[in-house]
Every structure is written in C-alpha cells, then in structure tokens.
Design goal:
193 residues; alpha/beta; 3-stranded parallel beta sheet; two-stranded antiparallel sheet; 7 strands
Length: 193
C-alpha cells in the first residue's frame, strides 16, 4: 500500500480516477488455504482505508464468479448465551481482612452500548472463501451496485482488442454510474479459453 500511495503521489496530476490492476486477485493462488489467508474483504478494506474509495471493479476472467451467495449453501449458527461464571473468590490479607478491589474509574461521556450477539444471525463459513463480487456488492450495498456480466466476444474476436475495448467501455460506464446517485459498478468480462 505504501508503494502504491508513493507512486500515486509522485505521478498524479488532476486525474479523478486511478486504475489499479492486479489487487484482490486471490483466485490466482493455487491452495484453498492461501485463498482464505488473503481475505478479499481485508484487502478491499485496506485499499479504501489507505488509497481511497473503490468506485468500480472489473474482472477480466475465464470463468463467471457468482455475485450472490445461494442461501441454501449458508449455514446459520444459533448464538448460545454463556452461563454466568461464579463470582471470584474472596481474598484475604495476612490479618484476615477481606481485600476489596478498587472500583474502576468511570469513563466520561455517554455510556457505551452493550453488544448483544444474540441479536444477529451468525454464519458458518465452512472454509468457503467469499469471492470479490460478493465482497464488493455486500460492502457497497446491493441496491447501489450496477453489476453486469458480458462476453469478451461482444467487443472483439481478438482477445487483446477485446481487453482494451472492454476497459474503455468500463471507464465510460463508471463515470456514468457515479453521476447517477453515487452508484458503483461491478463488471465481469468472460473470455473463452
């Protein structure tokens, strides 16, 4: 992230958008465990925290990645409240007097709301990584994301020509989406192998 930030600061003039290639690309990793270790939501969050908001994503790929999770494949875990532990044993000093711990100092400001895990539905991942479309669409809100899948052959029969034509169309579409009430864009371009 530091290298990307330094490069942006060094080369940026008046551009509104920056195109980053190759990030959030854990599908290129061979082992499932490696894919789980490089979590897309963490990488996406780091980009937004350190570089700036991600407006649009395009995937130039050979296989379609579903943008939603099939609810039949999701297992929910019922939260069980932990039973209260027994109060701590009383401690006594050398004279037999009870040692009373000093009360904690109260923090200034309004009291903090207590987190209640039983109010949320918890999912079990079963070691299935979430893909990039699912992660991006969840983060931005499904209603705000314009998602689309196109075949590369619609742009050109040549792969190289299809790449740059699809990127040109994607950038134009990103500018259009931003003008429409802060919409985001996720595009998949599927190539034949």
């Amino acid at each position: 992230m530091d290298l990307i930030n330094a490069t942006i600061k060094e080369n940026r003039t008046n551009q509104k958008y920056i195109i980053l290639e190759g990030l959030c690309n854990s599908q290129k990793l061979i082992k499932e465990q490696d894919k789980l270790e490089l979590r897309l939501q963490d990488e996406l969050h780091d980009i937004e925290k350190n570089i700036g908001e991600v407006q649009s994503i395009i995937g130039l790929q050979f296989a379609y990645e579903p943008d939603t999770i099939d609810n039949e494949n999701v297992e929910y875990e019922k939260f069980e409240e932990k039973k209260e532990e027994a109060p701590p044993e009383k401690k006594f000093d050398e004279d037999g007097n009870e040692i009373v711990p000093e009360p904690k100092e109260e923090e200034e400001g309004p009291p903090k709301e207590v987190f209640k895990p039983e109010e949320y539905a918890w999912t079990i991942t079963n070691n299935k990584p979430v893909n990039l479309p699912q992660c991006f669409i969840r983060a931005k809100g499904e209603a705000k994301v314009d998602k689309n899948v196109k075949q590369a052959s619609l742009f050109s029969s040549s792969q190289y020509e299809a790449i740059y034509l699809s990127l040109d169309e994607f950038v134009a579409h990103t500018i259009k989406c931003e003008a429409e009430e802060s919409k985001y864009c996720y595009r998949q371009i599927i190539f034949d192998e």
